[in-house]
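A reminder from the course coordinator: this example appears on the midterm review sheet, so study it carefully.

Given structure:
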């Protein structure tokens, strides 16, 4: 496995550093295809919020809000922080709700930030409302681009999930759920797409559901925006690393519930990606228990900021699912 990953890294770096002429040809083609679409705006989520006068205010508010709410969670929920699941600095996770019964359900939360921003430390904000409903929260950190490549981050999330499932098995947890926001939703979707991992990792039978919130599932356009300056994803890898082109048929037998959500004030592209990913799962993969909802009056940021409120849709959906299925 290590040899495969090592060879993949070498091939990935070779793609990045070669083919300058090919890159120019591709850029010209993409410019023609997307000439009528402002991709920078479509993928700049803060420019679509109606809550503030500027995109910068949206971002400042979001970081300040989740930082304060995460501090509140840590101050009020028994926890164990900075548990290493890998060898690099970013590969750590937090468990909040350590005094809950061993069999308590677990929600694993993976933050967004286009794989290059935000952090585990300011992503603990969903924990307090879940704790009040006797649900443990595990917040996963990972290395960010450009220090890490996207394939490396996807592999790190797999390692974190292995740790979580082993922990859930040891504790006898009644069920494990994953939630991801924006780029975090992409990472959760890639994890769900990995049939070999799910089939060969102890504890994965405890997987119950996933909440994919304002996610990006098709990377083909994104590689032609400034977001890719840090991600450095070659155009050739946009399709292989896009959940939109993965197969999820293996989830049928597991009866995993998948909730796909986006905000009314997300960009048209983000809402379109959520709808298309839902259609892939529901129509192409013929999966049951698929749910799609565009949340009224919410944007890309308050759709998760609300997780700090005691009455929020994520907690309510999960509590309902736990009562119905566990």
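Designed residues:
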């Amino acid at each position: 496995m290590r040899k495969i990953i090592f060879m993949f890294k070498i091939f990935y770096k070779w793609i990045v550093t070669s083919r300058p002429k090919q890159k120019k040809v591709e850029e010209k083609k993409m410019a023609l295809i997307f000439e009528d679409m402002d991709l920078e705006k479509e993928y700049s989520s803060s420019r679509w919020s109606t809550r503030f006068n500027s995109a910068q205010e949206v971002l400042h508010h979001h970081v300040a809000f989740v930082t304060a709410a995460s501090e509140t969670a840590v101050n009020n929920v028994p926890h164990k922080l900075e548990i290493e699941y890998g060898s690099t600095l970013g590969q750590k996770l937090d468990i909040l709700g350590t005094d809950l019964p061993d069999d308590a359900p677990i929600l694993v939360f993976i933050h967004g930030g286009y794989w290059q921003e935000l952090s585990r430390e300011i992503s603990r904000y969903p924990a307090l409302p879940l704790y009040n409903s006797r649900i443990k929260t595990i917040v996963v950190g990972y290395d960010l681009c450009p220090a890490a490549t996207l394939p490396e981050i996807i592999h790190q999330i797999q390692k974190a999930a292995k740790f979580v499932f082993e922990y859930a098995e040891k504790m006898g947890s009644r069920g494990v759920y994953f939630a991801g926001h924006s780029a975090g939703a992409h990472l959760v979707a890639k994890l769900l797409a990995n049939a070999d991992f799910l089939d060969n990792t102890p504890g994965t039978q405890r997987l119950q559901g996933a909440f994919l919130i304002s996610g990006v599932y098709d990377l083909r356009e994104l590689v032609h925006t400034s977001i890719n300056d840090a991600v450095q994803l070659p155009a050739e890898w946009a399709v292989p690393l896009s959940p939109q082109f993965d197969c999820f048929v293996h989830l049928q037998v597991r009866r995993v519930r998948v909730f796909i959500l986006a905000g009314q004030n997300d960009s048209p592209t983000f809402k379109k990606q959520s709808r298309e990913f839902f259609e892939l799962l529901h129509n192409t993969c013929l999966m049951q228990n698929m749910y799609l909802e565009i949340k009224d009056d919410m944007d890309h940021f308050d759709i998760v900021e609300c997780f700090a409120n005691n009455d929020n849709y994520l907690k309510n959906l999960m509590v309902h699912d736990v009562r119905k299925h566990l």
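The beta strands are 79-84, 92-96, 106-110, 136-140, 176-181, 207-213, 257-263, 290-295. Residues 1-16 have pLDDT under 50 and may be disordered.
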